Amino acid sequence: MKELIFNWVKSFYSIDKSAPIEELLKNSDYEGHKFLWMLALLVGMAVLSILIWYLTRQVLLAVIKKIALRSKTKLDDLLVEKDFFSAIAHILPLLFMDYFFSIVFFSFPKVLEYSIRLNDFLIVLVILVGIRRFLNAVRVVLEDKPYFSDKPIGAYIQTVKLIVSIIFVIILLSVTTDKSPIFFLTSLGAMTAILLLVFKDTILGFVGSIQISANDMLRIGDWITMEKFEADGDVIEINLTTVKIQNFDKTITTIPTYNFISDSFKNWRGMSNSGGRRIKRSLNVKIETIKFADDALIERLSKVKLLTGFIQEQKEAVEEYNKEHGLMDEYQINARRPTNVGLFRRYIEYYLQNNTDLNQEMTLMVRQLQPDTKGLPIELYCFSKTKIWADYEVVMADIFDHLFAVVNRFELQLHQEVTGSDLRSLIPAANK
């Protein structure tokens, strides 16, 4: 095409078609018309470029869209949705312009040089945009795969985008300034300190996302608690620089990725993957109400189905021990005797063992903790079968509702802080 156009221009000045292009440039008549020729050829190039761009978008993209809709794969549909082909459609007219510039500006070498640089810059930029849109489509495809559903795909894709962008920025600078990419790589080394300062958060996020992935510390869908940021909810997105958490009140907390390396947080994934959710709560028994169980109390409690067998076995064992050691006298305070708090502790244990809402294959125990000013803590340590928060709370509440109701049957009282009504009740007594 270049030769045909040059020969056509030569024909206006009676120059032999076989003559080199330099003969045209030496022609005095052409010298006075070269600016007009440049404008005419520029208009022709612009019209053809717009026509190519229009045909590419209207025809080629329509064909590609129809093919994508008929195919079974999801990637091509996403490429259409993410406008990948729309970006690539700009390359064909730009390549045409890159070729045609050598014809339009052949009489103006400096303009030709800068126009080609600008056009090459646009071509590289379009390729970069296309690659980034392609990566966006790949991200959606991978996130829909069951294997990658809990992986930080967003962080991986953003890392690849960052690397690709840095490479293409160097190429863009090289194309614009007509210098080797090695020159900019060398300059990049000299600017390391400035780059570290400018991209500090990005670099820390990149390091954090790699460590999170390598150590499997965090996955999408994990329930985490991070008190420093008042975050308590499910991870919905892991990016290169941030992690998004949807709290249980439906608010969104955004936390820098690196903070999951530098600060502590609680991941409830272990509980979710286990056979149950832990119940660990105490009842504070008033120490002054703890006593040896008398015959009347033992008689009443022996009628409780859960304690009947235990009380009978304990009664026989206690009598045998005391008889063997000569402790049958009621004044022998070191004799073995059942206590009301001991019976209550055993009752709780048997009650939990017969509770169908608890996982009996996991740890289940009832223990005493260190007494303090609030009394003697009797701690329940067990696991519910359900891990659903609302159902878990119901199971735990049902257990403690029952224990609060039956504790007085053991002639025990639970500790409760003094309230205003308690103090007011003492006033009439003090006035007597």
Explain what this protein looks like in three dimensions:
- The chain has 18 helices and eight strands.
- By secondary structure, it is an alpha+beta fold.
- It folds into three domains: 2-211, no CATH class; 213-268, SH3 type barrels (Roll), CATH 2.30.30.60; 277-420, no CATH class.
- The protein has a five-stranded antiparallel sheet. Strands 6-8-7 form a three-stranded antiparallel sheet.
- The mean pLDDT is 81.
Protein topology:
Elements: H1 2-11, H2 21-26, H3 28-70, H4 75-81, H5 84-88, H6 91-104, H7 109-144, H8 153-177, H9 181-190, H10 192-198, H11 200-214, E1 223-226, E2 231-238, E3 242-247, E4 252-256, H12 259-262, E5 266-267, H13 269-273, E6 277-285, H14 295-302, H15 305-324, H16 340-353, E7 365-368, E8 376-384, H17 389-406, H18 420-431
Antiparallel strand pairs: 1-2, 1-5, 2-3, 3-4, 6-8, 7-8
